[in-house]
Amino acid sequence: MTGTPVLQLDGVAVRYPGRGFRKAPTTVIEDVSFEVGHAETVALVGESGSGKTTIGKAVLGLTPVSAGRVLLDGRDITHLTGRARRLLSSDLQAIFQNPYGSLNPALPVGRTLAEPLLTGSPLPRQEVHDRIADLLRRVGLPEDAADRFPAQFSGGQRQRIAIARAVARQPRIIICDEPTSALDVTTQATALELLTELHNTLGCAYLFITHDLAVVKEFAARTLVLQHGRIVEEGPSIGVCDRPQHAYTRRLVAAAPVPDPHLQRKRRQQRTEAEATAG
Ligand SMILES: Nc1ncnc2c1ncn2[C@@H]1O[C@H](COP(=O)(O)OP(=O)(O)OP(=O)(O)O)[C@@H](O)[C@H]1O
């Protein structure tokens, strides 16, 4: 990778305090280090509970980091809070799984999209208006969507609104935490196409958190594999998915559903073999 990475994690650990009398803290993430380069798409995969969302939250300042550093364009943002953290929003954005919960139901869509444009160094009123129209067009929604409320849209359309909000300030990187998991298969494909198109036109980097390996190969240039809060394998997505090196990655790949029944059978067999090897 050339130049300063957009995002860098250096030995990051997250520990949650133990519950109850004298309960030891739980280490959820341990010594996690990786980089995301300019306009790079990096996937973070792992089983449920492996710590993917916790890494996303650590980057976004939504959970305290117990050790290590998070750098954005070379700047240490690990412990930034309050206004300093909010000012990062022009460079660091997020899209979450649930388009129902991530939009303020009381705000018309136009106000939701205006928020990031008015944070930090606010844009002039007319420019905000024009940018909102442009954002709605980019994500395939009609201009009058600005006057409507989230409840008046379908799940896929709401995720488009969330995507429009995330790209409004043309951030350096977007943390996408399972952004398509709550959508049906067709809407999922459309949302991924939209994210790819925006990546190609706007040039933002993505850290794409998912448990769906089929998405990984299509969408991300590089993949990080997380097991019990540690990265166990890392490399170009095609290599990680087609020639996994670590036994855990092999199990993940073998467990991923595939549309071809013959291939599915072969995968099942590979999974049994991988489980036998892992003991
Ligand atoms: N606030 C918290 N307090 C204590 N433990 C937590 C907290 N949040 C998450 N955990 C634990 O941290 C571990 C990792 O959770 P995390 O949500 O990061 O996993 P994940 O890989 O994103 O899982 P999924 O794919 O199911 O979303 C889990 O064991 C979870 O129970």
What does the model show?
This protein is α/β, with parallel strands linked by helices. It folds into two domains: 7-102 and 172-241, P-loop containing nucleotide triphosphate hydrolases (Rossmann fold); 244-279, no CATH class. It has ten helices and ten strands. The chain has helices at residues 52-60, 82-86, 109-118, 125-138, 155-167, 185-202, 213-219, 237-242, 247-255, 261-278; strands at residues 7-16, 26-36, 41-45, 67-72, 75-76, 92-95, 173-177, 205-210, 222-227, 230-236. The protein has a six-stranded mixed beta sheet, sandwiched between helices. A four-stranded antiparallel beta sheet has the order 2-1-4-5, with helices on one face. The longest helix is centred in the last third of the chain and has 18 residues, at 185-202. The model has no long low-confidence stretch (mean pLDDT 89). Bound molecules: adenosine-5'-triphosphate. Residues 16, 26, 28, 46, 48-54, 211 line the site of adenosine-5'-triphosphate. GO terms for molecular function: ATP binding. Belongs to the ABC transporter superfamily. Residues 270-279 have a biased composition (Basic and acidic residues).
CATH superfamily of the largest domain: P-loop containing nucleotide triphosphate hydrolases
Integer count of domains? 2
What count of helical segments does DSSP give? 10
Query: How is the CATH topology of the largest domain named?
Result: Rossmann fold
Shape: globular
InterPro entries: AAA+_ATPase, ABC_transp_ATP-bind, ABC_transporter-like_ATP-bd, ABC_transporter-like_CS, Oligopep_ABC_C, P-loop_NTPase
Keywords: ATP-binding, Nucleotide-binding, Transport
Domain ABC transporter: 7-253
Biased composition (Basic and acidic residues): 270-279
